[in-house]
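REQUEST ID: PR-0412
SUBMITTED BY: lab tech R.K.
PRIORITY: routine
TASK: structure prediction, single protein chain
INPUT:
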Amino acid sequence: MRCAGNGPVLCLFVANIAIFLLMVCSNGIRCVIIPSSQTLLNWGASTAYLTLGQCQWWRLLTSSFVHAGIFHLGINLFVLRDIGKEIEAWFGPRRFCAIWFTAAAGGAITSLFAHPISVSEGASAAIFGLFGAMLVFVWRRKNLAPAGSLKLHAKIILILVGYTAICGFFDKTIDNASHFGGLLSGFLAALLFLPSKSGDTLWRLADSGKLACILLLCAGAYFGAYSLLARAPDVVAEGEYATAVKLLQAEKFDLALAHLNKTLELTPGNESALCDRARALAKLKKFEEAMTDCNSALNSAANKKLVHFTRADVLHQMRRYTDAGQDLDKVIELDGKDAVAFNNRAWNYAAAGSYAKALKDCDIALSLDPHLTTAYDTRATVEILLSRYSDALADLDKAISLKPTDGAYYFHRALVKEKMRQPGLQDDLAKASKYKYDPEDWEPKPTTMSQ
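STATUS: complete
OUTPUT:
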């Protein structure tokens, strides 16, 4: 394998890999394959409600260093390795950087216009900008380009361009607008920074002036996007919804409700917002309103699985365990490989006193996902109810080893320790309190809750 380069290309290699590794280390191993949209945004990806609505213009550049999984990163770095060294040699390090970041910003701005509420990330736009730069150099400085250089890279360029162009119509995760914007921006930047006919690549005063013009054009495009999109209903709704989700995670349900109401005023029928509002309403004991939201979402839902999940949760809180079980049955009919659905149904069975069915569903959930800690906890709770304390302790120790920040596991382990007369009961109760676990009425509880 050839070296990626000794200048900007190598720096881009290191920066992209380092940021990806930091993201994985901070957010868990699942980010290696499919990081969540929120994780990508936390690390600098672009979307209109942040980049425009909150004037976080720097996301136009930082988004090019954030990747949606190791395969996304690998493809981009492979292509960068394939053509980056040549572009850097042909244009010089400073001009290469100008082309790269112009293409990255141009692709991000184009994506904002085309897909304002989508999350845009990855170096693909800048990579396409390098394709544009290669075309310019071979076209305008053919005498300086090594013989067959375009032909040498044509296969990988055509495959990548063809794949993204065709698949982009079917796969919404492929951002063709960003790719096109990057290609055009890189092409135009390469025309501006084209080396002299003698091959001189030194950065000169005129290049600084050209770069200033590019910055002004990018600023103009950014403010144009801001004027058109920053207050658009769907963009504002996306910002309101993002705020609501953070408040829900912090269990500030009354505050989240205000933002969810605003989201649904702007985008009526938003099934995700309806489901989250139903959950917030249920936590506030407004069950009838929560059921109304669930039923409204179900009438027009594209994702019926999400709505059945939500309605089952609301019905469970209403202690309508039979009805909740029917919704979970429908979730499993839609997706028989969903471990969480089996766990939730097991918890519902446990609340209803159907312990054999609950244990069976826990076993299925763990066979589908051996790292699903809540399934160990659910099974342990049933085992406690059946006075199988040693089995319960083993499951709870496993759950805590996998996720030591869930109060439920410590709460149930405290109960087991009380039953088995083992030390550490009060320590586990303290941790359950620290992690804010609130047991349901039907759950078994230690006879003493004092410190």
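NOTES: Residues 234-335 form a domain with the Serine Threonine Protein Phosphatase 5, Tetratricopeptide repeat fold (CATH 1.25.40.10).
REVIEWED BY: pending
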